[in-house]
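Thread: C2E complex, take 2
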Amino acid sequence: MQNESRFHPMGRSEMLDSVERAFEERQFKIYYQPQYNHSNKRLVGAEALVRWIHPEYGIQSPGDFIPLFESNGLITRLDLYVFEELCSFVASCLEKGLNVVPISFNVSRHDVFCPDFIDNMEGIRKKYNVPVKYLRVEITESAAVEGNDYLARILDIFHSLGYIVEMDDFGSGYSSLNVLKDIKVDIIKLDMIFLKGEISGRGGIIISSIVRMANWLETPVIVEGVETVEQADYMKSIGCEYIQGYLYSKPVVADEFVKLIETGKSTATKPAMKIMDGIDAERFWSPDTVETFVFNNFMSGAAIFSYDKTHDSIEILRVNEKYIKELGMNTTQREVILSLKSLGLDEENRRIYVDTIMRAIESGEEETCETWRKIHSDCCGDDELCIRTFIRIIGKSKGLYLFHATIRNITKEKNISDNEKKLRQAVDHANIFCWEYDVDTKNMYPCSRCRRELGMPAVVKNYPEPVIESGLFPADFADMYRDWHKQLDNGAKSFEAIIPLTADRIPFHVRYTAEFDENGRPYKAYGSATLVVDGEN
Ligand code: C2E
Ligand code: CA
Ligand code: CA
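Output below.
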């Protein structure tokens, strides 16, 4: 593998002296840096990046010679050279029948002021007979500084020829937002570099706002310079799944890129688990904190959402992968963030949800509710799901509140409850005490016989502590019984034992059976106690 390191950096005059020969001898080589969809690890595109392979000085990086070429006008010649190499490469791939992906090339801001540039480009493209869908124009934000109107016209020309145009290094300049307003770019490229260093905490907020805004404009975002799985997972969790960076691959020579097209595989790996201490809103936003790591690797479906009290609006900002699994509808994080602006709640359910938000703000504790939601996915269509949500506030500023939520899809549980009612009635007629234990809430719901004959309330909270305290349950069996519940929480399937119950300590056969959801997690356990008949003991 050819590596990126150069041997000797060249001085300005050395470059100028050897540049003409460099063009003649075709010393400029194109490297390709692949872009991946981090959700499915598929190759989605690439960027063409130039290097100068000098016979004496070795590989020169574009960061060193591009500025010089920009200052003396050579850049346009170079960019056309790169474009020709690119077209020739794509043509050869197509000839071989390869499944080639679109490749972006850099158009310097000087190029767009050169009147013949686009004509020359089109001449080259036609010479190699490359369909425009394989080529993407990458233009830097700073090109817009000279005047948005001019750039907008250039973009119109590219668009009319069928090119997709990407705005490179978005967010690096001052004018980003204005640029977006005036110029119809098709794809935004963000650089992870802007997140490093001192802006780590706020960087997360900035980058997630940009992605959110881009999502609103339905403009895809490609994030560059991604070096770690944490950064990639973070970007995915805020709705940006297209990744270009060393994590997946450095820029590689044409032959190696062809291999990547052929295999379509990647080498990204998962990191080992770490531990979290507490929650701090700012840390939660930053892509390289433990909090973010834990969020992405959380065992339950988790989301970060904001509630704007003044406008009474809820917005999902981030969801982890388990969240998607929990919905069970084969959606993507981006889809959820885009489509769930209202969480799929109708008026009645929204009221329940907002009430819970208000309680969470007031108590500072975790609050929970159950709501029905209409969820849409491209693959499964529409469905209605019952979601239990646990909400905790993690930040606030001037009427805007930030929350962490975990969700649990309890649709199945809800849908069988009609059958359960019938069963309960049948049980009531038999000589049996029974109850339901809810694993999440630790609530116990006794049957009507329990209530009638043992004087239990409709719901016993923090089960089984109250029945142990009340003496209904014998003290010498208490620890065993507590342990059953612990094990039920952890996925045990069933228990049984003979236990002397009631004030009279009559031996009962107590049995427990757990019920599991689609993801194999216990959500309920059914308990029963029947009188021990002679000979059983
Ligand atoms: P750029 O267009 O923003 O290209 C991305 C740069 O980030 C590339 O540097 C790439 O090698 C580097 N990079 C990619 N992934 C990572 C990563 O994970 N970590 C880090 N630290 N860096 C990463 P490169 O190839 O040195 O190019 C530098 C700049 O030179 C480019 O920035 C672009 O502005 C310019 N350039 C390169 N090729 C051309 C060209 O053909 N024409 C023009 N006009 N400019 C070019
Ligand atoms: Ca670029
Ligand atoms: Ca860039």
